[in-house]
Amino acid sequence: MTQSTVEVLEELGPEFYRDPYPFYARLRERGPVVRVGLGPTPVWLVVGYTAARAALSDPRLVKDQGRMLRAAAATAGVEHLPVPEEKTFGEQVLTSHLLTMDPPDHTRLRTLVGKAFTMRRIQALRPRIEQVIGELLDAVAGRTELDLLEALAYPLPVAVLGELLGVPAAAQPRFKELCNALNFVGPEEMRQVGEDLAELVLTWVELRRTEPADDLLTELVRAHDLEDRLTLAELASMVFQVMSAGFGPTSHLIGNGVSALVRHPEQLEMVRADRSLVPAAVDEVARYDTTVHIAMPSVAAEPFELGGAPIAENDFVVVSPGAANRDPAYRADPDVFDIRGNTAGHLGFGHGIHHCLGTSLGKIQAEAAFTALLDRYERIELAVPAEELQHKVFPARLLEALPLRVG
């Protein structure tokens, strides 16, 4: 491939979904930043570690939606794209969140929602996390085969997010449905999810106005009602952000993690023998089989050079944390799963102002899940050949199921 080649990522076949890393390695041969087709617009895809880290913290790469529309119009060769109709409240919920914002709005909202993710609050959730894991594993006690995603990795973060947000008990079944929908529905269905979530959040807001509690919903209602620091749409969007960031990434950190450990039994036994290695195993999973392979796009506010590539004003730039974490320039043995290897500075949870807010909460859940599985089962292995595991890649690397044999 030459630098002028535009590789259309959507046209890659099943082999890419099974194992995308050889493809990323071939892209890196062209350079750390390469031109590819992603949707209707050519973008600069950042596959090198140093360039990815730089891009994720470069203020010249912005999320401004108006600039993105103008840039897309310029790429399409038209003066402007059709003006979208005024967004419904549900559409605002899906689009007015941290990943689509730049400072100062990003700073304002991240400061507000960051109150939910203080170490004090997260550590206080640990006993509840361990209790939920115990209950979920008790529910499948006696079974010698199970799908870990259905049994543990999906329901655990839903329960934890419900505690964090303060979801009323009566709304928890619907909350679970919406969390699952965020991970599995397409763009068209997602619009309805936004409308449903908006309606649900409005009922929660009214409840927390009359019955405040020590939870994120109460904090957000106070910021809206008393401090006038966010709009109602921003409030609902913060709930959406917490749900989307806290469910899928955590579920698949657990799923990808257990998958990696059982496919490397010597590493599994190393952790079993020394439980102090569990946190290192979680970070190695986040590096080795990163959940987010294609980050949210940015657009260049001015021309500059990134990894030797000439980024023009209004060019789209997309970072691939999954590719960057396997760059030999970052780690000499990037394709080796080694829980004792260097993971300092890995991009599995992002970097810069858009670093994942829920990193600590997700890691605590994964650590607790790994520990509980090792405590409960002397034998944990795949119930199918490794090559039969099915993945989805774009924008995240997700296992469709993780059948295990346990005992």
UniProtKB/TrEMBL annotation:
Listed PANTHER family: CYTOCHROME P450 YJIB-RELATED, P450, PUTATIVE (EUROFUNG)-RELATED
The protein's name in its UniProt record: Cytochrome P450
Presence of the UniProt keyword Zinc-finger in the record: no
Keywords tagged on the record: Heme, Iron, Metal-binding, Monooxygenase, Oxidoreductase
Highest taxon listed in the record's lineage: Bacteria
PROSITE patterns registered for this protein in UniProt: CYTOCHROME_P450
Originating organism: Streptomyces rhizosphaericus
Family note: Belongs to the cytochrome P450 family.
Lineage: Bacteria, Bacillati, Actinomycetota, Actinomycetes, Kitasatosporales
